Task: structure prediction
Amino acid sequence: MGVTLRLDVNRWREHLRVVADATPGLVPVIKGNGYGYGHRRLARESERLGTDTVAVGLPSEVALVREDFLGSIVVLQAWRPGDPIADDLLADDRVITTISRIADLKTLAATGKSPRVLLEVLTSMKRHGMSPTELAAAVGELDGLRFEGWTIHLPMGDDSRYAEAVRLARSALDARPGTLWLSHLPTEDAIGLSRQLGGSDSPVPIRLRIGTRLWLGDEGSRKTVATVLDVHPVRRGERIGYRQRPAPIDGWIVVMSGGTSHGIGMEAPTAATSLRQRAISMAAGSLEAAGLALSPYTIGGRKRWFCEPPHMQASMVFLPRSQRPPEVGEEMPVELRLTTALVDAVDEV
Ligand SMILES: *Cc1c(COP(=O)(O)O)cnc(C)c1O
Result:
């Protein structure tokens, strides 16, 4: 018994289709924990959407998508010398390697493998990339490599993003014309950029890399649930849990499936402030004052407090005496941040 993601597949696919139709040059991003769904499912859905390219985070993730998705695969993490998995992919025609330093371009050219490459432009994120003054020199090192375009990864939610995108894209296109692979630029801005730089008759080709908004954008298409594993009555002051702390209230200890191995932490993952405030006013007995943390489990229509930090595969939460205790085997909602959570099963409904 663990944590299950219940997915309304038809509704989810409708959402994926809406995003895909509204996004020119969509490149679905499949990485990390597979956004809660797993790499293979997202690879299959990308194939179904008809996109010709997806992106993964790491070289090792290429193997997780390549059998279910048949097109090209961009590796987002910039290539560095000394990674044998990345080096094996250089000769693979389906893989596009991201390069963020001139030194790496020289090293790659010397391998004689002629990989498909994207050149990364340094943005105000200051993560990876070459600055505008280096781009012409970078283009000079492309001999023997297959240039697929420029990659620009912008910071999120900043008003100056568009101006920065224009400035960096212009520098890049001056150094060499090519497709712009953009991340975290709103679609309308990306289309505007493409027209502004290329003219409306010959807009610059763009590819938009999207993960969270595509896979997790429709919250109503899914819910995450955990199972009641045990229920024990408890009296105030009785010692409980690994830490043998005294129970702060009369009531029940409800043992729920799910724990640290699923990415369940000490606090509710979202809206912590308002939940906290609500909880403070609600909990007249003030479990928070007793040093407890709000759990992501909902029982009887309300988030409940952890008795102690979650265990590996189970969590203990309090239910006050005034509540009807749940039955063993009942399912309860658990709020998970799906970019960090690991579910045991995805059930299609
Ligand atoms: C992870 C990543 C994305 C996708 O990010 P989301 O916020 O999940 O859409 C896009 N571009 C790059 C370069 C990334 O590393």
About this structure: The chain has two domains: 8-215, 220-348. The CA atoms of residues 231 and 254 lie 5 Å apart. Residues 29, 31, 76, 153, 183, 209-213 surround pyridoxal-5'-phosphate (CB under 6 Å).
